Structure formats: structure tokens, C-alpha cells
């Protein structure tokens, strides 16, 4: 055996191996550096100039729920006082108040109205202020302290006169509410907000307020008239647009084209 040739061969082999391992190490460091450089959601929001109020913290789990529109009867309206109530249809109470209720100027703090709701409206304490628009005030139904968002089957719409007094209302309600599936981990609100940015729903400099977790109707099973509602984050953008982001997967649920930022 030619020992010198063998030794030279080993040297070449080990040199090639060292070069290979060096390239592997450099590639690993570069990949790690690239991962470390990836911006967080908060950094992306900051870079886009998005202003947002304090986001709810802590880990949260919620279940999907199902419900049906409540069927009102003559018995339901026969007990209502200080108003003239009728059934608009089996799912709606339509009422005219005997005495208008002044609401003042404090949006969302309608104490006299909420006193009336507590005493004179069917399960009136199960609703929470949602919005005031032109000559209407909307209260949305609540389940387990979570608002049932943007649901025409679960709200009270109060009508106002020219004196800013409540003169009547229409009420709908969901009942037979049931929880199903296992508890699901809800993504942090800031991640849901990041989905709005990623999908083009936020303009540079947008101001986001009112982060709140509730339920949004995902599907209605026509044959059984059952609604399926999923845990959902709500955000108000620039004081005008309401956006709803599914809590476990961060899918934007109200995706009308007109809401997209060009």
C-alpha cells in the first residue's frame, strides 16, 4: 500500500467534508437569521401606521353555538305595559310607546331607555347597546356576556322622533341556544387585527377601536332554521366600518367587496 497516497486521499476527503459542513452551518445561520428578522404582527401594524386601542389579553376558549329565531305569541305581548304591542310576524314584536322616552346626548348611556327595557320589554336585560344611526338605536342580544354580532334575528331597533325621543321598537330574539364542539382556543385580538391588515381591509393610518369577542352567524341551515354562530372578534375601523374576524382561524367574515381597501 502506498501510504502517502492514502494519506493524501484522506486529507482531501476530510477537506471536502469540512467544506460541506461549513456550507450547512452557514445555511442554518442564514435561515435562523431570516426567521428572527420576520416582523411581528405588532411591528407590521406599527409600520403601517395603524392606531389601535388596548387589546384584550390572556388565553380564551369558547365553543360554537347554535340557535333558532324565537317564535313570539300573543301571550308574550299581552303582558307588555305602557305600550301598544303587536306581532309583526311570528319572530318580531312591533311596539309603539304610550309615552316617548327622551334619550339625551350620551350615546350608549341611555339610562331611562334601559330602565324601560328592564321593566317593560321581554328579556330586555339580555340586550346590549350596539349603535345609534340616524333615527334609530340598536341593541344586540347577548349570550354569556358575548354579543351576537350584526344579527337581525337578535336585536331591538328603537325608533326616534324629531325630538330625539324613543317612540317605538321592533324586537327579535334567538332562543334554543346550545353549545357544541369542544372548547376552542381563541387567537389573540391583535392577530385577528393583523388579518385585517394582511387582507387589505386597513388603510395606512387607520384607527381601530372597540375590540370585542362575541358571536357571528357563520351559516343558516334553511331546512331546520338553525343558525350556527362562531366565536368572532369585532373591530370598529375609523369610527365607521365594522369588521368581524373568526376567532380560531382569523378569517374575515364580512368580506363585501365595497369594504376592501383599494
Automatic annotation (TrEMBL):
<dbReference type="Pfam" id="PF09648">
    <property type="entry name" value="YycI"/>
</dbReference>
<dbReference type="GO" id="GO:0016020">
    <property type="term" value="C:membrane"/>
</dbReference>
<keyword id="KW-0472">Membrane</keyword>
<feature type="transmembrane region" description="Helical">
    <location>
        <begin position="9"/>
        <end position="26"/>
    </location>
</feature>
<dbReference type="InterPro" id="IPR018604">
    <property type="entry name" value="YycI-like"/>
</dbReference>
<protein>
    <submittedName>
        <fullName>Transcriptional regulator</fullName>
    </submittedName>
</protein>
<feature type="domain" description="Regulatory protein YycH-like">
    <location>
        <begin position="35"/>
        <end position="247"/>
    </location>
</feature>
<keyword id="KW-1133">Transmembrane helix</keyword>
<keyword id="KW-0812">Transmembrane</keyword>
Amino acid at each position: 500500500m502506498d501510504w502517502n497516497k492514502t494519506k493524501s486521499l484522506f486529507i482531501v476527503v476530510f477537506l471536502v467534508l469540512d467544506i460541506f459542513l461549513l456550507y450547512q452551518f452557514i445555511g442554518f445561520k442564514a435561515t435562523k437569521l431570516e426567521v428572527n428578522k420576520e416582523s411581528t404582527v405588532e411591528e407590521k401594524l406599527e409600520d403601517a401606521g395603524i392606531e389601535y386601542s388596548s387589546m384584550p389579553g390572556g388565553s380564551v376558549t369558547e365553543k360554537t353555538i347554535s340557535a333558532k329565531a324565537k317564535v313570539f305569541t300573543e301571550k308574550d305581548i299581552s303582558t307588555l305595559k305602557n305600550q301598544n304591542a303587536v306581532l309583526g310576524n311570528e319572530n318580531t314584536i312591533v311596539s309603539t310607546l304610550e309615552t316617548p322616552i327622551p334619550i339625551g346626548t350620551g350615546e350608549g348611556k341611555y339610562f331611562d331607555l334601559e330602565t324601560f327595557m328592564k321593566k317593560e320589554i321581554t328579556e330586555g336585560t339580555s340586550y346590549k347597546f350596539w349603535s345609534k344611526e340616524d333615527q334609530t338605536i340598536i341593541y344586540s342580544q347577548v349570550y354569556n356576556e358575548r354579543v351576537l354580532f350584526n344579527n337581525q334575528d337578535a336585536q331591538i331597533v328603537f325608533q326616534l322622533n324629531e325630538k330625539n325621543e324613543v317612540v317605538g321598537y321592533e324586537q327579535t330574539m334567538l332562543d334554543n341556544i346550545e353549545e357544541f364542539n369542544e372548547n376552542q382556543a381563541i387567537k389573540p385580538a391583535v392577530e385577528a387585527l393583523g388579518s385585517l391588515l394582511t387582507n387589505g381591509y386597513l388603510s395606512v393610518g387607520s384607527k381601530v377601536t372597540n375590540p370585542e369577542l362575541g358571536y357571528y352567524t357563520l351559516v343558516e341551515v334553511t331546512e331546520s332554521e338553525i343558525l350556527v354562530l362562531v366565536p368572532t372578534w369585532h373591530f370598529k375601523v375609523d369610527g365607521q366600518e365594522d369588521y368581524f374576524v373568526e376567532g380560531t382561524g382569523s378569517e374575515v367574515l364580512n368580506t363585501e367587496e365595497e369594504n376592501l381597501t383599494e
